[in-house]
């Protein structure tokens, strides 16, 4: 049997077992990194000691206003210091943080506030009109509103509600945080942008937030004192957990309200930004920035990009500018990034399209995931031949608890012991996953599957094209055919015939777009192109 059979007295106790939570990192940083910069935004510069005190005041003030453990506190905020503080202050009083997408229409905001039962909402003055309309549309009790002025950006308080700094002033900087007793307790509630029907409420636990954040330290090869620019909205998978991880590293969160090329270049040059995440559209913005908006810098900026594979042309242009791009992939249900295209030394010699082809892979599981793979409809592993398609599935410690008040959808998502993503992919012989498409974005033309991502990659290489999205257009003969929506660069004038000819030289005939529409593309707050809107437009062409 061996001595392991007799484990008398070797039980978990207060000394050797503490619930994992990102809150612990800020408690530690307040001592270890007390005088180092924690949060920077224009003239707002707070050390870890000050950050901790502000977070403690927020937690204490929420308790005074009747917030109890397990209650929901919502925010409708851009990436400003208060949004970072809420990531710690709300869970520090035992509550659950619900960061609401600032671009949602009042009807959806009302649904989220009713469904999550928020007790308090912290709201930026810019979004108060939408919130006011939402309150009128709510079925249940309205939450208390705290207005968060952003004087740095000239967004001043309206004065109808208590202002955030007054709220903090009412709190206790020495408030004793309510730490989770069980790491399975909920830390955050995130509503997925449903392209059909109502958004679903994804529930995160403290353990998952802690482990996903730690994942990214490893995957991003971070060393102490990173300087992180908030481009990914903090309402999007809690900013991919990055704000939670910064205190662990003694890092600095540099807030960015409006995502422009000038703001990003200025932050890199003036604040020494070392890391940021963003959709490929952000990379595109930097590549095509006018000379007047650019700044020189002499360090490499590490960038996580996700949302869609960056086009080879974008990668080829941005890497020599001083950015190292790592493609990551994930969903709200897995706390943001969960796979990474881990770079191998044997790829160092690759250039141009060959390098971009590897960088466009979603890659392999980050360390907190026990298994990420691609399966067929019977949940069997697909051949790793770079051709067979299946669905990406996840299992591990960075998967959500489930969907709030929706046991049917939760059971469906977790069928067979894995989280089902709905993303269609191939797997290369080295196990690296590469998305072919969202299940709903695959174009099936005359029985042939066409990857919209592949067609977009070709069109993006055209010198006149700034952005493009390809969707299915109904077709009497073929069922559906590819239709491209294109934004041209300023001063460029490629025609529909030019782009179709360009695509036909590089793609099989059936994959080439049959129609090209020139217009501005509809986008989500994170810069993802809203293909469902384009599909609707394509139907009426």
From TrEMBL:
Example GO molecular function: metal ion binding
Organism: Thalassovita mediterranea
InterPro entries, per the entry: AMP-bd_C, AMP-bd_C_sf, AMP-binding_CS, AMP-dep_synth/lig_dom, ANL_N_sf
Catalytic reaction list: 3-(methylsulfanyl)propanoate + ATP + CoA = 3-(methylsulfanyl)propanoyl-CoA + AMP + diphosphate
Keywords on record: Fatty acid metabolism, Ligase, Lipid metabolism, Magnesium, Metal-binding
UniProt-listed PANTHER family: ACYL-ACTIVATING ENZYME (PTHR43859), BUTANOATE--COA LIGASE AAE1-RELATED (PTHR43859:SF4)
Record-given protein name: 3-methylmercaptopropionyl-CoA ligase
NCBIfam families: PRK08162.1
PROSITE patterns: AMP_BINDING (PS00455)
Assembly information from the UniProt record: Homodimer.
């Amino acid at each position: 049997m061996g001595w392991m059979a007799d484990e008398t007295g070797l039980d978990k106790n207060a000394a050797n077992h503490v619930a994992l939570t990102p809150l612990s990192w800020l408690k530690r940083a307040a001592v270890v990194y007390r005088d180092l910069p924690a949060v920077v935004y224009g003239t707002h510069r707070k050390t870890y000691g000050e950050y901790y005190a502000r977070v403690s005041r927020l937690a204490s003030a929420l308790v005074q206003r009747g917030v109890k453990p397990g209650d929901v506190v919502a925010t409708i905020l851009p990436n400003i210091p208060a949004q970072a503080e809420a990531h710690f202050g709300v869970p520090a009083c035992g509550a659950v943080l619900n960061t609401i997408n600032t671009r949602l229409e009042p009807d959806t905001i009302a649904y989220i506030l009713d469904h999550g039962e928020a007790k308090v909402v912290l709201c930026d003055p810019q979004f108060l009109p939408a919130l006011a309309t939402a309150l009128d549309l709510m079925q249940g009790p309205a939450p208390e509103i705290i207005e968060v002025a952003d004087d740095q950006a000239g967004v001043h308080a309206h004065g109808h509600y208590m202002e955030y700094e007054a709220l903090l002033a009412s709190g206790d900087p020495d408030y004793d945080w309510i730490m989770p007793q069980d790491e399975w307790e909920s830390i955050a509630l995130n509503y997925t942008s449903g392209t059909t029907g109502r958004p679903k409420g994804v529930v995160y636990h403290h353990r998952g937030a802690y482990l996903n954040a730690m994942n990214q330290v490893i995957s991003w090869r971070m060393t102490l004192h990173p300087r992180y620019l908030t481009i990914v909205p903090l309402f999007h998978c809690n900013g991919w957990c990055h704000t939670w991880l910064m205190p662990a590293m003694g890092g600095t969160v540099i807030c960015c309200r409006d995502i422009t090329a000038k703001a990003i270049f200025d932050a890199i040059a003036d604040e020494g930004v070392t890391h940021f995440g963003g959709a490929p559209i952000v990379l595109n913005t930097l590549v095509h920035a006018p000379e007047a908006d650019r700044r020189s810098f002499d360090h490499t900026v590490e960038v996580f990009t996700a949302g869609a594979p960056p086009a080879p042309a974008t990668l080829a242009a941005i890497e020599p500018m001083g950015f190292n791009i790592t493609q990551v992939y994930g969903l709200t249900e897995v706390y943001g990034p969960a796979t990474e295209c881990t770079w191998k030394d044997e790829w160092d010699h690759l250039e141009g399209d060959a390098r971009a082809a590897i960088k466009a892979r979603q890659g392999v599981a980050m360390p907190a995931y026990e298994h990420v793979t691609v399966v067929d409809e019977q949940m069997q592993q697909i051949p790793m031949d770079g051709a067979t398609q299946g669905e990406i599935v996840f299992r591990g410690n960075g998967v959500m608890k489930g969907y709030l008040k929706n046991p049917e959808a939760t059971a469906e998502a977790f069928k067979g012991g894995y989280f089902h993503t709905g993303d269609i992919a191939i797997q290369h012989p080295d196990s690296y996953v590469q998305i072919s498409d969202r299940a709903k974005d695959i174009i099936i033309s005359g029985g042939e599957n066409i990857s919209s991502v592949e067609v977009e990659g070709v069109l993006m290489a055209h010198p006149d094209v700034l952005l493009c999205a390809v969707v299915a257009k109904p077709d009497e003969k073929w069922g559906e055919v590819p239709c491209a929506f294109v934004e041209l660069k300023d001063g460029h004038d490629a025609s529909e015939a030019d782009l179709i000819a360009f695509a036909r030289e590089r793609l099989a005939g059936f994959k080439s777009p049959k129609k090209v529409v020139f217009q501005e593309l509809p986008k989500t707050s994170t810069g993802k192109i809203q293909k469902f809107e384009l599909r609707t437009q394509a139907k009426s062409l």
